[in-house]
């Protein structure tokens, strides 16, 4: 059976925290990319959005997303936004989960991506969301960076980048 | 706030903690200010809507539950 799902790189944030996690020099040898994260940030809120950049660019991004907060459902739009990190006010020692799927990342058309996420919080307020994103740029993606929209990633946050081949 | 970022070189597997440049720190401060302004605007909008709703319910002389019943 073909080896279609490969861990490219992974990282765990150390004691000092980190303002962003950047995967660079991504080989163009796969069909799709999948980024999986377990994240907590040091903000005063229970949850916190994040931002994604490709090839160090924060322009030409557009996103549509819907989410439930535990008490209401809503939808919204954004640019580089991705969903969703636990904030410092979430239940101690809990981390949110997110996944980003980037098909045809090395192709020569605009790059679409999808993102799903849930936060963890032992209270009513917790987020579950889905996002559709587009980077209107035809360059092959060689680097992916994620950062918290405010604050920084705390120790033990992790990110795993997988390459997926269609054969 | 951490003034470092984690850079993972997928070719070599090297993971390094890199100090942010002055430009990156400035950008982060600008992003933070923009995020706070956006959150404040969202909160103000929520507050304004809640106040308008309460005012309308008071004018109609009905409770929120009664209003929901009317719309069901």
Can you describe this structure?
The complex is a heterodimer of chains A (167) and B (72). Chain A has 167 residues and is mainly β. Chain A is 0% helix and 51% strand. Chain A has one domain (18-164): Sandwich (Jelly Rolls), CATH 2.60.120. Chain A has strands at residues 5-12, 20-24, 32-39, 47-54, 61-68, 73-78, 81-86, 96-103, 111-118, 128-135, 144-148, 158-164. In chain A, the strands form two sheets. Chain A has an eight-stranded antiparallel beta sheet with strand order 1-12-3-8-9-10-5-6, with no helix packed on it. In chain A, strand 5 (61-68) and strand 6 (73-78) form a beta hairpin. Chain A starts with a strand and ends with a strand. Chain B has one domain. Chain B is built from two helices and two strands; from the N terminus they run ββαα. Chain B is α+β, with helices and mostly antiparallel strands and 72 residues long. Chain B has a two-stranded antiparallel ribbon. Chain B starts with a strand and ends with a helix. The chains are: A mainly beta (167), B alpha+beta (72). Strand 2 of chain A pairs parallel with strand 1 (4-9) of chain B.
Question: How many helices of chain A?
Answer: 0
| Radius of gyration of chain B, CA atoms, in whole angstroms | 24 Å
Helix content of chain B: 55-70%
Widest sheet: strand ordering of chain A: 1-12-3-8-9-10-5-6
Shape summary of chain A: globular
Structural class of chain A: mainly beta
- The residue ranges of chain B in which pLDDT falls below 50 over 5 or more consecutive positions are none
Number of domains of chain B: 1
Number of strands of chain A: 12
Mean model confidence by pLDDT of chain A = 94
Number of distinct helices of chain B: 2
Number of domains of chain A: 1
Main sheet of chain A?
A: 8 strands, antiparallel
Rg over CA atoms of chain A:
16 Å
Q: What is the N-to-C succession of helices and strands of chain A?
A: EEEEEEEEEEEE
Biggest interface pair, counts: A-B, 27 and 22 residues
Q: Which residues of chain A form runs of ≥5 with pLDDT under 50?
A: none
Question: Beta-strand percentage of chain B?
Answer: 15-25%
| CATH architectural type of chain A | Sandwich
Characterize the quaternary organization of these chains. Answer: heterodimer
């Amino acid at each position: 059976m073909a080896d279609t799902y490969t861990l490219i790189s992974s990282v765990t944030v150390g004691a000092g925290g980190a303002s962003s996690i950047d995967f660079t020099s991504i080989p163009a040898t796969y069909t799709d990319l999948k980024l999986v994260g377990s994240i907590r940030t040091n903000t005063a809120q229970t949850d916190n959005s994040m931002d994604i950049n490709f090839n160090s660019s924060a322009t030409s991004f557009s996103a549509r997303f819907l989410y439930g907060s535990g008490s209401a459902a809503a939808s919204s739009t954004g640019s580089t936004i991705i969903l969703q990190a636990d904030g410092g006010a979430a239940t101690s020692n809990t981390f949110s989960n997110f996944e980003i799927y980037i098909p045809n990342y090395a192709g020569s058309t605009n790059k679409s991506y999808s993102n799903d996420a849930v936060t963890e919080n032992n209270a009513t307020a917790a987020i579950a969301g889905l996002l559709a994103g587009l980077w209107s740029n035809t360059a092959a993606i060689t680097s992916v960076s994620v950062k918290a929209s405010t604050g920084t990633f705390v120790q033990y946050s992790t990110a795993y980048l997988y390459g997926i081949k269609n054969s | 706030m951490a003034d470092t970022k984690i850079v993972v070189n997928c070719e070599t597997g090297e993971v390094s903690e890199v100090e942010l440049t002055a430009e990156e720190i400035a950008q982060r401060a600008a992003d933070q200010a923009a995020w706070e302004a956006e959150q404040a605007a969202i909160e103000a909008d929520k507050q304004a809507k809640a106040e308008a709703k309460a005012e309308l319910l008071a004018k109609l002389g009905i409770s929120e539950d009664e209003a929901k019943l009317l719309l069901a």
